[in-house]
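USER: Note each token:
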Amino acid sequence: MFEELKEIICNYVEVEPSNIHPDSRFMEDLGFTSFDFVSMMGELEEQFDIEIDSARAGSVRTVQEAVDYLSTLID
């Protein structure tokens, strides 16, 4: 899941995949805007055929938190 998410992240911000780590924060470290983040959540919903709770997604700050949350929806 982590590697798949890294690829998707690179579609939204100018960052090298090697610079994306589990503890990377979307806004502060990777340069996401709130629009980028919401757009990425929409793509994840389509790609994995899941429904992301917007309130829960709003509490996701790091890549690992996103991986953990997505894992609960996909499994």
About this structure: The mean pLDDT is 96. Helices lie at 2-9, 34-48, 54-57, 63-74. The longest helix spans residues 34-48.
